[in-house]
Amino acid sequence: xPGTSGYREVVYDPAExxxxxxxxxxxxxxxxxADKWSVVVLAALxxxxxxxxxxxxxxxxxSRKVLTQTLRRLQAHGLVRRExxxxxxxxxxxxxxxxxxxxxxxxxxxxxxxRVNGEAVLDALEADAPGVDPGVGxx
Length: 139
Known about the structure:
By secondary structure, this protein is of the alpha+beta class. The protein is built from six helices and three strands; from the N terminus they run ααβααββαα. Strands 1-3-2 form a three-stranded antiparallel sheet. It has a single domain (21-127), classed as Winged helix-like DNA-binding domain superfamily/Winged helix DNA-binding domain (Arc Repressor Mutant, subunit A, Orthogonal Bundle), CATH 1.10.10.10. The model has no long low-confidence stretch (mean pLDDT 83). 47% of the residues lie in helices and 12% in strands.
C-alpha cells in the first residue's frame, strides 16, 4: 500500500530506460554494488573505519580472501580508502570515501526493505515456482 511502508512512490520515467544500457556508467556502478558482499562491506564501514580482521569478525560468513577482493574492487571504484598503518605497510584500516559515504542512505534503505520483505522473499523461494532455478543470480 502506498504511504504505509515508509517508501516513496516510484513514478515511471521513460528516460530512465536509458539509465541501464550496457555501457552506461549507472549500470556499471550498480554491477559493482550488486556484488554479493559489496553492500555488506559498505554497511560495515558505514559505522567507521575498520581493520581487515575487524571486518571479517563483524560481517561473518566472509572469507579473508573474498573480503580482500571486495575491498580492492570497492577501492578501485572510489568507494573505499585503504589507510596503511604508519610503519607497517601490511597493517591498514579501511574507510568509506566521501563517494562511498554517499551510499550509506541507499544501503540503509535496502537493508530496511530486506528486513521488511525478507520473509516474503523466502516464502516465494519455498513455494518453488515451476521452472525457476533458485540459484540463478546468486553466483
